[in-house]
């Protein structure tokens, strides 16, 4: 559904009027396209209080393709290495680094602060490193003009595991991701032969792929070189066929809650699966007092139980190849809760529990990562059905003052799916423009 307000503020009279009335000022986001594949300007590399990454960061920043500089009048991105901050006083280095330059960041620019994991043995280091989280989340809320801010925590020693993450966060692909904290393990990235099509030779299956976010995910994975299988319920067969045809993908009409769903998926991928995206989801909203047991059960069954069942069965059968990537779809409702959505929010919070618990074991036992996207307000048929006032509130109550698009969730999923994202495991990344809900 078109966001007319965003169009209005994109015009000079609209901007003038809304500014005079003190209304939100969303900036049209610049997303990835062949014409705009990267940020438009240099990447400013700053260090605040020493680094635990030595000289490993420079080549990783250079790999983004941006011009990396130590001074810039109008940077398109700023990376601050704050891994060496271990005391409260040391946080002054962060202020000293960013205070003079934050205003010069271009519209739609990116700030990424690099930190390290708060230590369970050193509460001074833990305090200083945890402080970075509050800093980044506040910065995301105040920079405005379509710019974003994130914190990436790295294991000390090497920045190499962060390459795919920095390429994503410092690009137009992450336009609707802000205020996030991404914790990386020290796992070395799997080699990437071609960063333009990193999924070449890989097979990906997306559930709920006939339309909406799932269709966008399938499209982006195909763009990145994957052979895609689009799964959706048989009732959506026609739409599913159209989506699959458009992408040169295979259609698999199948209800994911069917008892033999995992076997049928395995039969459809004789060479195994490299990317498994659990996107299918439903809502059956009612307040708890009015909710019949069947509405409760349907939502838990589709959104959570089938995800648990198929994940277990496909991992146990060895259908997910080593180096595989499992991506589940949560929601900010699973973090913040929502009136009338006890069933939905429970299912999506359950997805987060699944991801956090399984991720380390899946990596150790199968060489597979498990992560979740948690979309906020995304412009789809699901949200078009929301009453006008609630829809407007959902769109504006975030740092970017607008709804996201299915492509934003898809780009985040594609980053998780990359061979080079081995160090991204057990993460729940919100694609919500830093929604105030559950912030
Ligand atoms: N749209 C949003 O703002 C938003 C926000 C947060 C989370 N999400 C989540 O993102 C995912 C996609 O949402 P969407 O907005 O694209 O929804 P949508 O309703 O447009 O698409 C969901 C798809 O899943 C399919 N599906 C439903 N039950 C299935 C089953 N049993 N087996 C196979 N396929 C099934 C549907 O047929 C449909 O094609 C869902 O998990 C949803 O909960 C969406």
TrEMBL record:
GO molecular function annotation: oxidoreductase activity, acting on the CH-OH group of donors, NAD or NADP as acceptor
UniProt xrefs under SMART domains: PKS_KR
Coiled coil spans: none
Pfam families tied to this protein: adh_short_C2
Residues covered by the Ketoreductase domain: 202-376
Family, as annotated: Belongs to the short-chain dehydrogenases/reductases (SDR) family.
Stated name of the protein: 3-oxoacyl-ACP reductase
């Amino acid at each position: 559904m078109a966001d007319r307000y965003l169009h209005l503020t994109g015009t000079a009279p609209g901007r003038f009027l809304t500014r005079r009335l003190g209304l939100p000022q969303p900036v049209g986001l610049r997303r990835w396209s062949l014409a705009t594949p990267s940020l438009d300007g240099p990447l400013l590399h700053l260090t605040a209080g020493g680094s635990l990454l030595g000289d490993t960061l420079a080549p990783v920043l250079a790999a983004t393709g941006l011009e990396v500089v130590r001074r810039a009048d109008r940077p398109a991105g700023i990376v601050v290495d704050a891994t060496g901050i271990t005391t409260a006083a040391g946080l002054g280095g962060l202020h000293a680094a960013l205070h003079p330059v934050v205003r010069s960041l271009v519209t739609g620019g990116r700030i990424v602060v690099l930190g390290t994991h708060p230590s369970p043995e050193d509460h001074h280091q833990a305090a200083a490193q945890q402080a970075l989280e509050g800093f980044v989340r506040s910065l995301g809320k105040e920079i405005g003009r379509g710019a974003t801010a994130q914190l990436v925590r790295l294991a000390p020693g090497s920045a190499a595991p962060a390459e795919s993450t920095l390429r994503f966060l410092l690009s137009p692909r992450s336009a609707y991701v802000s205020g996030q904290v991404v914790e990386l393990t020290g796992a070395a990235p799997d080699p990437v032969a071609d960063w333009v099509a990193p999924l070449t030779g890989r097979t990906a299956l997306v559930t709920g792929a006939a339309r909406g976010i799932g269709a966008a995910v399938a499209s982006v994975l195909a763009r990145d070189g994957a052979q895609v299988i689009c799964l959706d319920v048989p009732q959506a067969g026609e739409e599913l066929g159209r989506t699959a045809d458009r992408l040169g993908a295979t259609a698999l009409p199948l209800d994911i809650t069917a008892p033999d769903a995992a076997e049928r998926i395995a039969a459809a991928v004789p060479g195994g699966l490299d990317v498994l995206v659990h996107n299918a989801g439903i809502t059956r909203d009612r307040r708890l007092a009015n909710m019949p047991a069947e509405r409760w059960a349907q939502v838990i069954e589709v959104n959570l139980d089938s995800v648990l069942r198929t994940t277990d069965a496909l991992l146990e059968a060895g259908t997910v190849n080593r180096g595989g990537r499992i991506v589940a779809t949560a929601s900010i409702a699973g973090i913040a809760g929502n009136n009338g959505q006890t069933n939905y929010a429970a299912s999506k919070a359950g997805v987060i529990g699944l991801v956090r618990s399984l991720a380390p074991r899946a990596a150790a036992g199968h060489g597979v990562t498990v992560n979740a996207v948690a979309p906020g307000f995304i412009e789809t048929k699901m949200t078009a059905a929301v009453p006008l006032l609630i829809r407007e509130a959902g769109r504006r109550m975030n740092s970017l003052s607008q709804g996201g698009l299915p492509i934003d969730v898809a780009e985040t999923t594609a980053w998780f799916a990359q061979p080079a994202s081995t160090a991204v495991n057990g993460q729940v990344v919100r694609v919500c423009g830093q929604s105030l809900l559950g912030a």
